[in-house]
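RECORD TYPE: inverse folding
INPUT: structure tokens
STRUCTURE:
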């Protein structure tokens, strides 16, 4: 059984505020991303995660998120199956982030294209 960790919005914000090093990956669709992203996120729609898995395995902690946490949990499970141990799912996704009082940023047009 391959496992992954979960992180809530308050803890993720604390990681930002205290300088904890991690990569943040948004696995939503470009249309969803265009409505706002968590600042600093890399945009990688879920279907591209298997194709770009090697990029994600080097360099420590990775936090995946989506709209509600379901698709990002799939990304986490996949990466755990690839042997990645320091992988986290943002519990509640963007909805949980916004509900916690945190803001979304506007992604650049170039990052949505790809």
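DESIGNED SEQUENCE:
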């Amino acid at each position: 059984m391959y496992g992954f960790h979960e992180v809530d919005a308050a803890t993720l914000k604390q990681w930002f505020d205290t300088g904890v090093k991690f990569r943040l990956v948004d696995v939503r669709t470009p249309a969803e991303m265009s409505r706002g992203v968590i600042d600093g996120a890399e945009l990688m729609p879920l279907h591209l995660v298997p194709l770009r898995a090697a990029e994600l395995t080097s360099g420590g902690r990775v936090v995946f998120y989506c709209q509600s946490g379901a698709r990002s949990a799939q990304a986490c499970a996949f990466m755990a199956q690839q042997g990645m141990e320091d992988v986290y799912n943002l519990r509640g996704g963007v909805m949980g982030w916004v509900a916690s009082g945190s803001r979304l940023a506007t992604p650049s047009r170039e990052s949505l294209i790809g």
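NOTES: The CA atoms of residues 64 and 105 lie 17 Å apart.
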